Description:
Elements: H1 3-32, H2 36-64, H3 68-72, H4 78-108, H5 120-144, H6 148-169, H7 183-206
Amino acid sequence: MNPLFRKEWRATRLPFLIGAVAAVALMGISALVRLPALSVVVWLGAQALGANLVGASLFCSEVSEGTLHFLLAQPLRRGAIWRSKVLVGFLELAVLMLLLTGALILFSFGASFGPGAPVPEKIVLALLQWTLPLFSCSVLCSVLMDRTITAVLAGYCLFAVLFYLMAAASAGDLDKYAPQGTPLDLLNVIGTSVLLLLASLLVFIRKQVSS
């Protein structure tokens, strides 16, 4: 395994695993007490918080720990460092979403919860149309800022601005911008996310780090 990937995974695996287990456990408890709506709320909140925290901490954590300058002093291309961090973030986010979605299906799709449960198609669309752009916004803010909490808040704000801009493009009606899963919607979201990630790469390549 690439040493950069091993380093990133070792640095983030404990809080990632703790957060994933806690979210799944809370969803299970809500199912046991017959509150399926709470399972859905926890799933939505955990995926948004996970995307935001994973993206925002990728680079800010290096700054806060004082290791970014040392990392950039190594004979490594900045593009390779950026790629390893973002890929590990994607993998962690994908695992988290699989765990949360599996728990949601397990806890909320039983007969005791009635016919109002969300369907898998909507779950997948939500992951694509909300989680990916929020993660991309947070990665960009993580590169631009030095404190994780600042990047977390800025990531949410940037995502909110983009959300309203895309809503305005949909005839100015926010209700019409609910995830519909049309090819144009998916292309718009994926394209925006890719542009945000490319912007974060360009900023990181040119980033000046004081010793």
